[in-house]
Amino acid sequence: MALLYSIRKLPRNIFNLNAFYINSSFSSFPHQNQSRWRSTSTEISDLYDRPPRRDPLDTSFNDPEAAFRSKTTWEVVRAYIVYTLCSSNYVVERNMELMKLAKAILGERLFRQLMKATFYGHFVAGEDQSRIVPTLTRLRSFGVKPILDYSVEEDISQEEAEKREVESSVSEIKSSEAVSEARSIGGEMPQYNVTKTFADRRYKVQSARTYFYLNEASCERNVEIFQESLHAAAGATYGTGITAIKLTALGRPQLLLQLSEVIMRARKFVSEVIGGQGNVIGQKLNAADLEKRLEQAGIKDTKKFLAKVVKDSEGVIHLFPWSGIVDENFQLSDTFRVPSLKEGRMVRLISQLSSREEEMFRNMVRRLNTLIKTARDLDVRVMIDAEQTYFQPAISRITLEMMRKYNTNKAIVFNTYQCYLKDALKEVSTDLEQAKRQNFYFGCKLVRGAYMEQERARAAALGYPDPINPTYEATSEMYQETLAECLRRITDLREKGLQKRIAIMVASHNEDTVRYAIQKMKDCGITPEEKIICFGQLLGMCDYITFPLGQAGYSVYKYIPYGPVDEVLPYLSRRAQENKGILKKIKKEKRMLLSELRRRLLSGQILYTPRGNYISV
Q: I want to staple 160 with a disulfide (CB 3.0 to 4.6 A). Which of 156, 251, 295, 339 is the partner?
């Protein structure tokens, strides 16, 4: 990963309290919490003074000592208890009921203590940005960096979720004429229809958080929460931190839905012109050929449309001026018009939006700009999470425009690609091509995906093609092919003297995927210290992958959730269910935890205190 500094490159006076006060927003913390930061400053200063340690990597990931070196013996025991509970169908299927029952019986204070001693303590770093500092410090001392996520989730009913989603996904203006016009390009697209059956986007989703739109004020509050995470990452990670953001937290979902449909219809338009498939940039449309084809079709009034087409010497990049849409407040209703070969005239690809809806879109973009500007100023990176396929074209398009705007000197903004999708490789390839042709740094996080069951059920119910790869093996192959394409591009750029133009996070709990990435790094001559490739896993999951990587000098991250106990119960519920789905990994982790307990008992290290002298790259 193209990160700016490792800790060893920082000026030594950053550990002086006065410098720390200025550079890490120390003064923004309550007086009673400042002692934590003083202690942390001293600990990291000590770490700086010690020579860095590097261990050989066991790529079988079967070394219990390396996996749990960062844990106290109680934490090893707690992890075993948590994984044992996650293996119980009864506990997992009724986990929310059981937690609420325990809270009612034990009362608020005892319930919090119980959770901190079990699930909360294992999967969550702490209640706020000051209380997570000891966890971040310890992780760093064992070579692991954080991706911070304030994991408070609304615990709303299915009925309330459906009501909010339906209301926020339908335009204020009913325009059958605009709908009819749009269908002349690409026909019916049922995946962009609103249906109450799938309005609760939590349906069959275990590994992703869901935001439901309430009003513009709630979106502004989400911005404040994300900004707090950015400041926490900056204050505790010294230029290596990342914060995760979901675009559905920043605006009305209707706008993402409509924008996604526009993007897919624009692709269909280009396909009709030249007979290709996929993204506009990937179809290699020549601007002169486009103009000639429209003349042959006898379509008038195309001059304004053609003037806005984004192109370079190699051909058309975009049909629409996305930079103007993101930066210059272009009106969506007026911008998204294309010539219809079928009707022989200009048609709208988006339903007429009210002035209030146009303002809501500008608000969404403003909020994202605010967060990325904050991240840039604090030297923190931002990862935009992937979401459902009916939102994703808009999310990716906006994210790529933010990359174009902010990734001018290094990768600050990262997009997320779900490799269980059949089009994953094609999407990454065309986005890499855009980064090359528009000369910006490209950041991507590769994941398997979080919405598989929901996506399949929705496609079957609404009658459109299943977007998901048919098998687990096909997804693994897609992941590897997509990673290989990124590495091929990196190699090509290096041969041209362009270094660190692409940064990749391999976010995977799959050992084979991690091994594949490590081998490909060796094949391409990429060293861990270059930070072009980094790895990521969730806090409390697959420590036997994360910590050996960090201790061997690889750039590796833990996804760090934090928030008050009562308000992260939905997050904990999802973690329990997700672990139930990976029983094979749980069995391995439990076996290794027992092995480490035996080793400590036999070697007299039962009171072992973790103190790492690894420095994360």
A: 156
